[in-house]
Design goal:
globular; mainly alpha
Length: 511
Amino acid sequence: MGVAGLAVAPLPAVEIEAKTTAVVIFYSIMAATGGLMMGYDVGISGQVTTSDSFLKKFFPLAYDKIQREETDTNNYCKYENEGLQVFTSALHLTALTSTFLASRTTRLMGRKKTMLFGGLLFILGTVLCSTALSFPMLILGRIALGSGIGFSNQSTPLYLSEISPTPIRGALTLLFQFDITLGILFGNFTAYASSGVESDWGWRITLALAGVPALFFTLGTILIEDTPNSLIERGQLEKGKLVLRKIRGTDNVEPEYLEILRASRVAQAVENPFADLLMGQNGPPLVIAIMVQVFQQFTGINAIMLYSPLLFKTLGFGDKSSLYSSVITGGVNALSTCIAIYSVDKIGRRMLLLEAGVQMFLSQLIIAVILALKVDDDSNTLSHGMAIGVVIMLCTFVSSYAWSWGPLAWLLPSETFPLETRSAGLSVTVCVNMMFTFLIAQSFPTMLCQMKFGIFLFFSGWVLAMSLFAFYLLPETKGIPIEEMLERLWKQHWFWKKFMEDEIKENEDSD
C-alpha cells in the first residue's frame, strides 16, 4: 500500500537534545570522503584526455586530428571529438543507472554497506583503468568507476544528513561537497605534476592515484556505524537506540528515537517508494530535488571543471599555464566551500543561493564580453591582461558556486524527503545529477565550438532562471529537524502547502 492512505498522527513538537560529539564528527569525516572519489575524477579528466600518450594509445584518430588542427584558425574547435566526449561522460552514464540499484541496497542493507560497496567498485575501476592495455579494458574500468560513484553518491549525503544533529546538519552534510572540491584540487595537482611525463607512466600514475581517496573511503566505512534511521527502519531497534545515544552524547534520546520509529513504521508500509514519490507530500521535495540538480549542472561548473585544461588551452594559455590556472580554480573551489560549511546553518540556504546567483551571473557575463572583444577566429591567444581577467572572473564564478549551488544541491534533497521515500528520492537526485552531467560533458566541446563566447551567455541565462526559482519556490530548511519537515516546512510554505492540503482532503474523502 502507499503511504498516502496511512494515517499516522505526528508526535507533538518536543525539544530534541543533541550534543556535537567527537563520534558524530568522526563518522561524518569518514563518510564524506566518498566525495573525494568523484572530485578526483573530475580534476584529472581534462588532463588525461589531452595527454598525447593517452590519445595515441586509445584514440589515435583523435590524436591525428588534433595534431592536424594545431594551426587551425578556429581555436574554439580544436578539441571537439566524439570519442573523447564519450570517454569523459561514460562514467556519469554508468553512475546514473547504478544509483537505482543503490537505492534498494541502501534501504534493505543499510547506508554503510552501500557506501562500502561503492568504495570497492571504485577501487576495481581504478585498477582496470590504470593498467588498461586495450580500449575495452579502459571502458570496463570507467564502468566500475561510475558504478562506485553511483553507489557512494546515493548513500553518502543520506548518511550524513541522518546522523547530524539539527543545529549543524547543514555543515556536516556539506562535508561531502567539501571533499569533492578537495578531490578536484588533488586531481589538479596530480595532473600538473604528471604533465611533463611524455610516456604512458604519466596518465597511468594519474589514474592509479584515484585509488588513494577510494581506499580512504572504503576503510572509513568499515570504521563507522550505520545511521539510527537505517537501523530502526530495518528492525534493529535496540542497536539503533544505542547508536543514537552514542552519536548524540546523551541518554535522553527518547523523543528523537520515537520520531524516527514513527517515520520507520510509515516507511515499512511503503511497498514501492518510487511510486510514492509521485504522491502529494512527496511532490514538493521531488520537484526541489530535480530542479536543484538541473540548475546545478546548468551553472556550467562541470563544463569548466571537467574541461578546464582544454578550456584554458582553447583560450590561448600554454600547456603548463593552463594546468596551473586549473589548479588555481580548484583551490578557490575548495576554500570557498569552507564558507558554505561555516555559514549554512547561520544565514540559511536561500541567502547563500540568492547572493551567489548575482555573483555567478555577473562573472559569466563579463567573461563573455571579454572573449567577444578579444578572441576571434584569427587569434590563437589572449593578451596577458585579458587572460588574467578571464582567470579572475572564472575564480569569482567558481567561488560563488562553491558556497551555493555546489554543496546545497546535495544538502537540500538529503534533508527534505520523508524517511519512507528518502532512499528513492536520493536515487532520483543522483540520477538527475549524473544525467545532466553526462549531457554537459558530452556536449560541451561541441557547444564551445558552435557557440564560442556565447556559451557563457547561455549559462548566465540559466543562472538567472535558477535565482528566480530559489527566490520564489525554495523554502528555508535551516534549523528544522529532518523528520519534522512535513509539518514545519511544507505545510507552511505559501506555494507547496496546497499539495499537502490536497492530499489531506483526498485521505478524508477515502475515509
